[in-house]
Design a protein that fits this description.
There is one protein chain. The chain is an alpha+beta fold. It has two domains: 212 residues, no CATH class; 134 residues, no CATH class. Helix content is 55%, strand content 18%. Strands 2-3-8-5-7-6 form a six-stranded mixed barrel. The radius of gyration is 32 Å and the shape is elongated.
């Protein structure tokens, strides 16, 4: 046997994988493949649905409320020179001045609700296309051109029992300084209702014009919301803007991650913990592969001794069992990827089918049906799914590495096998 020819290692590993063992045949290998496939499939489905929900909320929050970047110059307006400089920054797709304040809102025949009111330019839908894309009009129209006009979130309007054309009253404290604060009531006419898909905003948000916001607040405190061509490169634009406005002492720029740090950290931790919990399946499979290959080593002691006596190195012999573990993991990962992607991409159809079958069976016993997913509970019409390539690579890589770890531990003793001792005993 030539030591520099290792092709036999590949074929021997395949033969060991498909050759029946003395007691359990292919059961151990099949169970390992099944365990990896189930773990990979489960992780893909869980993380894809979780990504879908998270990115749906992230997009709605950033495109409607938070913006990619916030530029604050102590409440001052940007000068024409500042606007010109901002227009010259590559990648800045929109810049919207706004004023935020919290107040209570009351319809004519309802109890007051807490509301977040935002004053925006009347042409905001033209200057910020992504705002228009993520904020759908439920009824009426988004029209702030007339003084005293207001657009409400759909759920806020529903709780107040108001429709386009009805009037609502805003109650707020306004004025400069604590000594000048006064309680003000101002009536607005609802021109439309909107929905962004994020319940917290749909039930608290209202839009008025910048002029109306100034009349209520009694002072100007503008913040500029900036949109960029790539939301994931926010630090690049933040650094560029800090250099652009280096002479401004009161300049403060915050990114969407900084502004919503608690919310997004919670989402990230949720995803990490979910991955760790489901990854325990891979750990169990790695232990199963370890015991399976360890038994394989003990059953093939004489074969290993013959291979080593013919010139095979300990590394080559150990490689046989490592490759066997690799074949098992690749078969499991491949099967899991196919099943996971197929189910994740058709998760809503799967839910509909399961509901139909279960409700059909329960109907035979005159029991009430079930609903796996309801838009009334989750505030979405269907389950959102987002498959991220890096998740697939990470899932597959983790499964293969853990499997190879178990195979390496199981095959480590082959280096200590002495051919003469084994063959003499036989």
């Amino acid at each position: 046997m030539k030591k520099n020819n290792s092709k036999w290692v590949l074929t021997t590993a395949l033969r060991y994988l498909f050759t029946k063992r003395k007691e359990k045949g292919h059961v151990a290998a099949l169970l390992s493949i099944l365990g990896i496939a189930v773990g990979v499939m489960t992780l893909i489905i869980v993380l894809s649905v979780m990504n879908g929900f998270q990115h749906n909320y992230i997009d709605n929050i950033n495109e409607v409320i938070s913006y990619h970047l916030r530029l604050d110059r102590g409440g001052e307006e940007l000068s024409p020179e500042d606007w010109a400089a901002l227009d010259g920054v590559p990648g800045i797709t929109a810049a919207v001045p706004f004023i935020d304040f919290q107040t209570t809102l009351r319809g004519e025949y309802s109890e007051p609700d807490v509301a977040l009111i935002r004053g925006v330019p009347i042409d905001v839908r033209e200057t910020d296309p992504s705002f228009t894309k993520h904020l759908s009009i439920e009824s009426g129209e988004f029209d702030l051109s007339e003084p005293g006009s207001i657009v409400l979130g759909a759920q806020l309007a529903m709780s107040q029992g108001v429709f386009p054309g009805d009037r609502v009253t805003l109650l707020s404290l306004a004025g400069q300084g604590l000594s000048r604060l006064s309680l003000q009531e101002q009536e607005f006419t609802v021109t439309g209702t909107v929905r962004c898909g994020y319940l917290e905003y749909d039930r608290t948000l209202g839009f008025i014009s910048l002029d109306s916001a100034r009349s209520i607040m009694g002072e100007d405190y503008l913040v500029y919301g900036l949109k960029t061509s790539n939301i994931n490169r926010e630090e690049r634009w933040k650094k560029g803007l800090e250099e652009l406005y280096a002479d401004s002492e009161e300049l403060r720029i915050s990114t969407w991650k900084e502004y919503n740090v608690a919310f997004f950290d919670a989402l990230r931790m949720e995803k990490v913990m979910m991955f760790l919990v489901v990854s325990l399946v891979f750990l169990v499979v790695a232990v199963n592969i370890f015991h399976s290959l360890k038994r394989s080593v003990s059953e093939r002691m004489e074969e290993i001794a013959l291979l080593k006596s013919m010139g095979a190195s300990p590394v080559q012999v150990q490689g046989i069992f490592l490759l066997e573990g690799l074949y098992i993991s690749l078969a499991g990962v491949g099967s899991g990827l196919i099943l996971g992607l197929s189910l994740a991409l058709n998760i809503n159809e799967v839910f509909d089918f399961v509901e139909m079958v279960v409700n059909g069976v329960m109907g035979l016993f005159r029991s009430s049906g079930i609903s796996i997913y309801s838009s009334m509970n989750y505030y979405l019409v269907e389950v959102p799914v987002l498959i991220m390539p890096w998740d697939l690579i990470f899932i597959g890589g983790a499964a293969v590495l853990l499997s190879l770890g178990g195979a390496w531990l199981a095959s480590a003793p082959v280096a200590e096998i002495q051919p003469a001792e084994v063959l003499n005993i036989e």
